[in-house]
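Subject: sequence -> structure tokens, single chain

Hey, anyone have a minute? Need the predicted structure for the following. Not urgent.
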Amino acid sequence: MLDYCRELFRLENKQTVLEQEAKQRGLPIPQVLPSEKKKLYEKAKKMADRYSWIVFHYKSINDDQMDHCHSFMQFKSKILSNQKSDQYFYETMMIFAAKVLQNAFDKTDIPKLEEEINRLFRSNAFNISQRIQFDEQRKKKYPQLKDAPPKETTADMIKRLEQRFKIPKENYRQSYLRAKTEIRPLFSRLTPHGAVQSRSPLVSMIFPSLKDKTKIFQEESQKKDLQKSANNSMYVKRAELDRIVEEETRKRQGNHNTAQNFHSMF
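Reply:
Had a minute. Here:
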């Protein structure tokens, strides 16, 4: 997870710098190289493999209990009886990873670190860390959204509520859709209906479904088409370049001959 997050933040910072330079020079926005994305995905796959080892090593039912399960209902009842302990275990593992990795990153990268770890474990739609950060930013920008003080008069309460009505509405889902996350693997902008059927990115990297494979293939094909169109618009083909050079050469020779004839007349 440390290697993956370091590589991810490096690519995102690099992309931000390139976008700023491209806007200043009036150039098209550059894209991250496919080789760098592949390197990031390989680190993510290693992280998912380690996670799968933890999941199967510390499973709810040990081998001895599985031998005594002779039917599906017995197997399911054992799992459901240990459901809370499983939830506590994975929540503790997620919080532990976020706390331990904080010392390896700058303070400015800690919110991104917690957000990405929550995304990997809980999926995009149920990213609690991102929701909390969104609410905190809104409260810093608009202090009237904070909770009422313990001793608040009726006049102050009415004034605070009036100020709340003046705040422009901004949905969390809208900021979620505007997020630039082309680099992060298996980041999907989900609809409310699709959020119910969403899968954890870590689990999707361990056991990718047919839908995940189809989506990755479509995204890669779309990016290749965009790169081809960008290359065709930015660069001129060799045959067209030769034709343009020949025409310019003829025009210059014609202008030069005209100038010589003009001087010879005088």
